[in-house]
Amino acid sequence: MSENTINAGLRRLEYTTDEMTAHGFRAMASTLLNERGKWNPDAIERALAHGDTDKVRAAYHRGTHWQERVEMAQWWSDYLDRLRSEKMVAM
Fold it and tell me: Is residue 90 part of a domain?
């Protein structure tokens, strides 16, 4: 899904560009995951699809931090479920 599609959906939900953007979700995830202090910052960057600057290495090294990224995704899912169950998000 493209960034523009997500931004269009946010606008239809009446969020302004000052309130939220598609890239804002990535920034929010990066901030929360880094503040948690549980994961390697490189694993977080990989999870956010920020690739290796060495293009040859990036082409062949796709599984970097895989297990850590799986655990991080599960933590993120559990975190969002917890927010929803505690009614900490607008529905």
Answer: no
- Does residue 91 lie in a domain region? no
Q: Residue 76 CB: number of other CB atoms within 10 A? A: 15
Measured CA to CA, the distance from residue 69 to residue 32 in angstroms comes to 14
> What gap in Å lies between CA 31 and CA 12, rounded to an integer?
26
Kindly give the confidence (pLDDT) of every residue in the chain, 91 residues in length, as a single tens digit, with 9 standing for 90 and above: 888 999 999 999 999 999 999 999 989 999 999 999 999 998 898 888 766 677 776 666 667 788 999 999 999 999 999 998 987 765 5
Q: State both tokens at 37.
A: 């202090």
The model's pTM is 0.70
Name the residue range of residue 78's domain.
3-85
Cα 64 to Cα 51: distance, rounded to the nearest angstrom: 10
Asked whether residue 49 is domain-assigned, the answer is yes
Q: How many domains does the chain have?
A: 1
